[in-house]
Amino acid sequence: MPRDPVTRGRVDVLASGDMTQTQRVVVVGAGLMGSGIAQVSAVAGHDVVLRDVTDEALARGRAGVEQSLNRFVAKDRISRDDADAALARITTTTDLDVVAEADVVVEAVFESLEVKTGVFTEARPAGPARCRAGHEHLGHPDHPDRRCHRTARVGGRHALLLAGADDAGSASLVRGYKTSDETLATARAFAESVGKTVVVVNRDVAGFVTTRLISALVVEAVKLLESGVATAEDIDTACRLGFGHPMGPLQTADLTGVDILRNASRNIYTETQDEKFAPPETLNRMVTAGDIGRKSGRGFYPYD
C-alpha cells in the first residue's frame, strides 16, 4: 500500500470490530485532514462516508482526494485501477445520522472544543452502542462533554504527519484515565489497518508528543527568523540537512497551517506556562494578517 498523504491535527476515533476486515468508516469533517483520513482508509480497503455541513465542502474534500490519488498514480505509487477503486469507496453526505451505521467514526472538524463538543453531542444519539469514543487535543478523554455511552470506553487517536507526503505517518493513541485496554487495542487495529505506526501516549497532556515537539521547534525557528539570525530558507535547510528532517519547521508550519500551529502552541503554553511554547509576535501577526501558509497563498513562503 502506498504511503499516505499529509494529515494534520487530531482526530477522534470511535471504533469497534475486526479491523482486518472491510469496515464502514465515517469521517466527520471534509477538510484537508478529514479528506486525507478518508483517502488512506479507502486505499486500505475500507468503505468511507465523508460528512460535512455543506455540499461545497464535500466537493472540495473529494476533489482533494482525487488529486492526491492522481499524484500517486503519476509517481507509480498506486495503479490507476486501485486509485479508481479507492475513490469509488468514498461517498459524501451532510447527514450526521450516517454514524448510526458506522464501524469507525473519525472526527476531524475545526480545531475548536466548542465545535467538536457540538459534533459529539449531535452524533451521540445516532451513534451505535458498539462505538468507542476518542478525543481531540483541545479537550480531554475524561471531559464530561466528550463521553460516549461509557467513560471506560473513551480513548483518543491522533494522526499527525509532520514530514512530506512521501513519508509514512504515525498515529498517537492517547489513553484517558478510564480508557480500557479493549478501546486502545481497537484504535490501534484501525490505525494499523490504514498503514500507521502506532505510538501510545500514556498520559493526556497538552500537545501530546508530536505536537509538543513540533511546536517547540517552530516557535524557536520563528524567533530566529524575527531576530534576523537566519532566513526562513536557511533555517529550514539547517533542519533538513542537520537533522534529516524531510521538511524544515517553517515549511511544516506553512503546510500544516500557521494558524493551527499558533493555536496549538498557545494551548500548550496556556496549560504549561512554559515560555518556550509562547507564540512569538511574528506568528501572531501572520495569523492576524491572514498569511497562514499554503491554504492562503502565503506564509513563511509565497505559493501560487
List the helices and strands and how they pair.
Layout: E1 12-15, E2 24-28, H1 32-43, E3 47-51, H2 55-74, H3 80-88, E4 90-93, E5 104-107, H4 113-123, E6 155-160, E7 170-175, H5 181-193, E8 197-201, H6 210-226, H7 232-243, H8 249-256, H9 258-272, H10 281-289
Parallel strand pairs: 2-3, 2-5, 3-4, 7-8
Antiparallel strand pairs: 1-5, 6-7
Helix pairs in contact: 1-2, 2-3, 6-8, 6-9
Protein model, in words:
The chain has 304 residues and is of the alpha/beta class. It folds into two domains: 12-201, Rossmann fold (3-Layer(aba) Sandwich), CATH 3.40.50; 210-296, N-(1-d-carboxylethyl)-l-norvaline Dehydrogenase, domain 2. The protein has helices at residues 32-43, 55-74, 80-88, 113-123, 181-193, 210-226, 232-243, 249-256, 258-272, 281-289; strands at 12-15, 24-28, 47-51, 90-93, 104-107, 155-160, 170-175, 197-201. Strands 1-5-2-3-4 form a five-stranded mixed sheet. Strands 6-7-8 form a three-stranded mixed sheet, covered by helices on one side. The two termini are 31 Å apart.
